[in-house]
Amino acid sequence: MQQPTFLSGLMRKLDLLSEWTGNLISWLTLAMVLVTFAVVVMRYLFNVGNIALQESVIYMHSFIFLLGAAYTLKHDGHVRVDIFYRPLGERGKAIINLIGVLCLLLPVSGFILYISWDYVASSWALKEGSQEAGGLEYRYILKGAIIAMPVLIMLQGVAELIRSILVISGQEHLLKPDEEHAL
Question: Which of 68, 158, 144 is nearest to 113 (CA)?
Answer without folding.
Answer: 144
